[in-house]
Every structure is written in C-alpha cells, then in structure tokens.
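Lab notebook, page 48
Experiment: co-folding of the full assembly
Goal: obtain a model of how the components sit together before planning crosslinking
Operator: M.T.
Materials (sequences as entered):
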Amino acid sequence: MIGWIFVFSPIEFYSSALMLSRKAKYAINALVFLARENKKREPIQISKISESENIPRKFLEAILLDLRNAGILQSRKGKFGGYYLQKDPADINMATVMRLFDGPIALLPCVASNNYERCEECTDEETCGIRDVFSEVRMETLKILNNATLADIVKRSKSLAKKIK
Amino acid sequence: MIGWIFVFSPIEFYSSALMLSRKAKYAINALVFLARENKKREPIQISKISESENIPRKFLEAILLDLRNAGILQSRKGKFGGYYLQKDPADINMATVMRLFDGPIALLPCVASNNYERCEECTDEETCGIRDVFSEVRMETLKILNNATLADIVKRSKSLAKKIK
DNA sequence: TTAATTCCTATTAATTCAATAGGAATTATA
DNA sequence: TATAATTCCTATTGAATTAATAGGAATTAA
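Observation: model returned without errors.
Model output:
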C-alpha cells in the first residue's frame, strides 16, 4: 500500500530559549498590578494579586519574596499583611526586574557588561564580528528596557485603551 | 562553637535564560568560519571546522546536519566529503539561524509574529502595556539581526581589525 | 488567644541542554 | 572490488533548570 500520511508536528514555543521565564513574567504582571491598583501603597495580600493576575498562589509567594529581598517591594507580616511597592513606579524598570529573575540581558556572555564573561570557544574577542552585532542588539534593547518603568507601562496601557475606543 | 563561615556564592551566568544556546552559538561560529575561509565553497570536513572553532566534534555534526536540512548548508558525503554554504553569505542572516536553534525571537510569546501565542495569564492583550514595550524590543532587535548577514559579520571583523592596529 | 498572613526550606516532576556512542550509508581512489 | 574516509541517523545519558507544591515557623492585628 502506498499513500500519504498526515503528520501533525506540534511546534511548541510557549516559552522558548530566548523568552522571559514565567517567574519574570509573573513578577512584571504583579508589579504592574500594584502600580496600577495600589497607588496608596498599602499592603495587598498575595492571594489578591494571585487571583487578579492569574498567577499560582504559592509560586507568586516566592516571587514576591525575591522582589522584596531585592528592595523593589516592601512587606508587612501577620494579619492584614501583604506587599506594596517600595519605590515610585517611575523608578522601577523592566531591565532591573528581568535581571533579577533571568540573569544578564545579553544574547552572549561576552556582551554583558554587568556580568561579563568570555565566550569559551572564542579566539579573538576584539575583532569578533559576531560580538559586534550582538553588542548592538544589547544596546538597543537596554535603551528600551531601562526606560520602561512601571509608570511608563501603565501610561502605555491607558494610551492603548484610548486608541481602541 | 560559634563563628563565621565564608560562603562562596558562585554566580554562574555563562549561559543564562535569555542567552543564545550553545547550539546556536556554535552554528554561527561555524557559518562565519565557512564564509570567511571557504569562499570557493568546496566541501570542508566537520573535523576541520570543529578544530578551528573549538566546537566538540560530535555535537557539531548534529548542528551542521540541522543547517543542511534547513537549506543553509550543502553537503557532500563519502571520502573528501564535507559541508559548504548553500547560499551567498549576504543571504544568510542571524535571525534565521537563531530561530532554527532557539525558536522565536521574542521575549514574550504574544509579540512573536511567526509563532505568535497568547500569554496564558493575560486578560486584555490589546491594551497590555507590557506587550507594547516588548514588541518594541522585538522590532529593534530584528532590525539588527535581519541585516546581520554572514557577509556583514566578516566585514565587521575586518573593520575592527583595522581599527586596532 | 486565635485567625490570618508572610517567611523560609525542602521536595518534585517534567523538560531541556549539551553532549556522546555506535553503526549504516556513501563516495573517491588504489 | 576492496578500503579508507567521510556524512547520516537514531538512541542514550547526565546534569541542570523550570515551574511549581508542601508544610510548617514566625509574626501581627484584634
């Protein structure tokens, strides 16, 4: 018997190599939520954020703790405790948050400037054309991510909402 | 007994979440090597490339095979066989190679345009300020990576070498 | 005292990554 | 036609990472 078979190839990319980890994404969502919904900066419970932003409760717990230890959030313990922004939303940017959860913002270790590392296999870094390209990518990326503060993101949302209606 | 202990925290970032996989990096190095050293496009053996570029032999084998299946390399089998570029170095760019090994070039699934996927936790994509930021990052990144061809990278190397001496 | 919360450590299951192993198939040439 | 040198292909592996979950200690308001 000769014929065709249909092969379904499930290309799955929901989170691929170069994308933000779920931790980073959840962190950003939680922060934007706090910037938008908690201008008075009073303690908001984990479960509140978890439900509003569709983030697994226990996972979020660990994330918020990291953000607190990094000086981005402040917390109050005990009954009626919770989390709130430690700084002004205009002073918290995407680059900082991403670094905290996903490490250096650079496609190659040799173009990172905070956590620079040589590329093992590389023979001459100074004249490496590959490095040259990716260092350009890094510069452009950081230009955007450093300016993308929570305040900026909230503003963008509002402006998008206006455009639509 | 009471005292201090010294804790060495090994911050290891050689390859972090957002960086290229070794496969992608090795692939790029191999391709640039071929563009630079094999202008006549005759078969070059895996072991030759492996030694020149410090890439594990067997690992490189798999990588070159992928590049061939993607139509980027051509191969000849048997004695004196090997690999060579299938297209002009000016027609092979970084975006294509990266996608092949590391998937979509996008920090969020919802900003990828080839392999777009909704962000599970997202409630309103149209007015999402986060998406707005990362879509900007993607645009700028692709602008660079689409233009970064093998020919361009070789040119950059030469120009860097001139600057130094 | 108690109810509600954050804080902290440990565990886990699934997946991906980086590589290796071994042999089949192919080809040039002596 | 035999042989040496190569690519082609599938399977396996060990380590690391990711995305959570579990359970209970500590803290706080009332």
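Interpretation: Residues 17, 43, 45-47, 61-62, 64-65, 68, 75-83 of chain B lie near DNA strand D (CB under 10 Å from a C1').
Next step: discuss with group before ordering constructs.
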